[in-house]
Specification:
2 domains; mainly alpha; about 80 residues
Length: about 80
């Protein structure tokens, strides 16, 4: 069983739990951490762009900077 102090700490750290759980208490919430509701159509595109940029940056890093142990198999063959 959680003590009343733990409930107070939980409620302070969470974002106004009664707003989301109890009907009739949907009022303006002064949360400790304010939340932002963005348009899902825009955030999906931003997420894809960020992931693509990170993967491209990792590819450039591996191609030009972290390739010390790579060997060129074409140089090993005799012509």
């Amino acid at each position: 069983m959680i003590g009343s102090e733990m409930y107070a700490i939980r409620d302070m750290l969470l974002s106004c739990p009664p707003v989301y759980t109890l009907p009739g208490t949907w009022t303006k919430c002064n949360a400790l951490i304010p939340h932002y509701n963005a348009n899902p159509n825009i955030t999906f595109g931003i997420s894809v762009a960020v992931i693509t940029t990170l993967l491209a940056g990792f590819g450039v890093y591996k191609a030009f900077f972290a390739n010390k142990g790579l060997a060129d198999p074409w140089d090993d063959h005799d012509d």
